[in-house]
Amino acid sequence: MGSLHIGVVAALWAGAVEPALAAPASPRPVVEFRWDAPASCPVEAEVVAELERLLGGPLAERKGPRLTAIARVRQEPGGGFDLRLWTVSDEGTLQRSLTHAQCDALARAGALIAAMAIDPSVLERMSEETDAAEVAAEAKTVEDPEPLPEPEPPEPEPELAPPEPVQPEPPRPPLEKKKERRARRRASRCRPELRRPAGRRGAAEAHAGADLAARAARVRGRLRAAATSALR
């Protein structure tokens, strides 16, 4: 009975303990900012850094109502730049437009407009009037906001060219064939008479010996004739 009682209690205790819940996903940031501009303009990281400087801290650490700011810059045919800034909050969507000849000045003004939408007291905390404030003051509210721009798709990564196939080396001739070719080349450089067959070479040598013997006999004959005439 004691063992049965212990088993029942253990089973009830195990059933009462709930499994540990999975850790919740990281919450979505309260403030989000997107920047879309030509390559000649400041990049998004630079504009975010200016926005965080105005707010006094990182966007990821902001508390309060949720707000999304989307800034899009396009270059005009005349050479200037046009900024459209959407701010989306629980109260609705507000769009502002602003143009300027220089994109970097437009970027600083856009960061200031976004910072004021996130925290209206930003302008009051600024120690002095800045060029960005003067440019931002020219922003106009769009009465009928345009649809929010879709995020630009990431550029596809360039495809790598397939490696060229490695050409196999031609087979090397065997060593014996090389030796045979060298022997033939050496033989071709020898004197023609050395390449004659043995029978022909012997006949030629015998004929040459007979010529030499006849020539020697003629020389001896002339010498005898000269000696005989001298004795007379």
Automatic annotation (TrEMBL):
Domain of life per record: Bacteria
Compositionally biased residues, Basic residues: 179-189
Signal peptide positions on this chain: 1-22
Assigned keywords, A-Z: Signal
Biased composition (Acidic residues): 144-158
Region entry Disordered, spans: 125-211
Compositionally biased tracts (Pro residues): 159-173
Record protein name field: Uncharacterized protein
UniProt source species: Nannocystis pusilla
